[in-house]
Amino acid sequence: MADVDFDIGIIGGGPAGSTLASYLSQAGLSCVVFESALFPRPHVGESLIPATTPVLADIGALEKVDTGGFPRKYGAAWTSAADSRIPTLGFELSHGFQAAEVAFSERDQPGVKQDYTYHVDRGKFDLLLLQHAESLGAKVYEGVRVRHADLGDDPRVVFAMGRRETDVRVRMVVDASGRNTFLGRQLKLKVPDPVFNQYAIHTWFDGLDRSALSADKKQADFIFIHFLPVTDTWVWQIPITDTVTSVGVVTQKQQFTAAKQDWKGFFWQCVESRPELADALRAAERVRPFRPEGDYSYAMREICGDRWMLIGDAARFVDPIFSSGVSVAMNSARIASYDIIAAAEKGDFGKPSFDAYEGRLRRAVRNWYEFISIYYRLNILFTAFVADPRYRIDVLKMLQGDVYDGGEPAALTKMREITRQVEENPDHLWHRHLGTLRAPSQAPLF
């Protein structure tokens, strides 16, 4: 198509949209990004995993992030109120089931030349990425809301400029609108996830003793996941600055609904189930209001078609317990860019042009989905696999987000097998520790 304003129209300027715009601009394609918010704006999902590092390097933004004042993240840790006397069943555990931790330095990852990633203030981080895309040549409209996307033979993105409605002609449209799922709603593609229906209540604290629940005080600046003795409920603890820490409670919809919008009361009711955590939080100063986040998990019936594609959270979102959100956003943009650049070169933006993207993303997210499902179903099994040298590196690979190439990790296959044995045997020593969430027998839509 000769008469277009831009090659690619991108809806959403978060990590998925800005990363895609950077890749495409580097390849010489013209991009326009429509972002409804004015950056910087607050956003959850503040802890990165190593799989984001090669993408940042690819688009030339790694040095900006590394010198941007973001706390460095060297690993992750999980704590539990579970009894450490739970039978180990032959797993080689060093400290029972009350804690687990991994350091990114334990495993080399292709394309990653540093043993850390970052905790980020998403307002600053997302602005950095969007400005970087603009510096590479992408046209960025902030505070502009897209009204409609015409995906026919003459694709257009229709948007409002003040009181006036206008449009731009493009060769294809990419939805990177996050959990707003713009095209998912327009095309009626969105379906609720059959397993995960999580909600979150989160805030920031200044002066929190991050080592309060740490088995090793040197790991106080890791990301921490504190599992609560409340069904399918956990707390994240993420450093934002030297003194400010993001803390959020994630729980199931029915428990969230029962709170009846008393976010503060529900937050404290949950964390008080771990008294040492509650004491540490009460000794700190809350510096942001409590904010709820809903509709956490969903799938799409399709993720690409003729002249359109979904990336990042606009395509699929699963419970964020392993900090996969930004990684999936940026890596889906990376993988999508390969197919989009090839489609532009041959002048064919039909659905088959995006088969490689769809296949790789589906395989990766399917692994994430099952890994997270097993964690909720039998989280002591996760702790066992992290601590056992036979499986630790394989689990670390998944936690690093290195899931986009190759088949299913061997540890995941073994975890599924053991979980099935526990489910089918009421007399199994771990049977009483099964959680209530259970993944369907068939693979998820995405």
Describe this structure as you would to a colleague.
The chain is α+β, with helices and mostly antiparallel strands and 446 residues long. Helix content is 32%, strand content 22%. It has 13 helices and 20 strands. It has helices at 15-26, 53-58, 62-66, 122-135, 182-186, 253-258, 263-271, 275-282, 325-346, 355-377, 379-387, 392-399, 410-424; strands at residues 6-11, 31-35, 72-73, 75-79, 99-103, 117-118, 139-142, 146-150, 156-161, 164-175, 190-192, 198-206, 223-227, 234-239, 244-252, 285-286, 291-293, 298-300, 304-305, 308-310. Strands 1, 2, 7, 8, 9, 10, 19 and 20 form an 8-stranded mixed beta sheet that branches. Strands 4, 5, 12, 13, 14, 15, 16 and 17 form an 8-stranded mixed beta sheet that branches. Helix 1 links the parallel strand 1 and strand 2 (31-35). It is globular, with a radius of gyration of 22 Å. It starts with 5 loop residues before the first strand and ends in a 22-residue tail after the last helix. Mean pLDDT is 88; it is low at 93-97.
What features would you highlight for this structure?
446 residues; alpha+beta; eight-stranded mixed beta sheet; 13 helices; 20 strands; 32% helix
Task: Produce a short descriptive summary.
With 446 residues, this protein is of the alpha+beta class.
How many helices in DSSP terms? 13
Q: Work out the radius of gyration.
A: 22 Å
Percent range for helical residues? 25-40%
Largest sheet: 8 strands, mixed
Quantity of strands, as a count: 20
- So what's the overall shape? globular
Q: N-to-C terminal Cα separation, in Å?
A: 32 Å
Beta-strand percentage range: 15-25%
Spans where pLDDT lies below 50 across 5 or more residues: 93-97
Give the class from helix and strand content and strand pairing. alpha+beta
Mean pLDDT: 88
Q: What's the multimeric state?
A: single chain
